Amino acid sequence: MNTRNKIYTIGLLLLIILLIMNFLLPSWDKYQVKKNDLNNLKLQVMSFETKRKQMESDKQLIQDINKQENKIISCLNNKI
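RE: above sequence
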């Protein structure tokens, strides 16, 4: 290789390194941040789903307790 080709090769390598440093690495960092944000949102959605199921279960339990309470009150009223 002659000197001119070596200089062009080194210049091209430096240009590639600058492009990687200025564009590719910041984009990768933004991608990682967005990925973490998405994972956090997924965890929140799963947590919400669990809480919703628990709430529905509690609601059903409260309804059953109220029915039993009404039956007991009705029974007591009939005996009096």
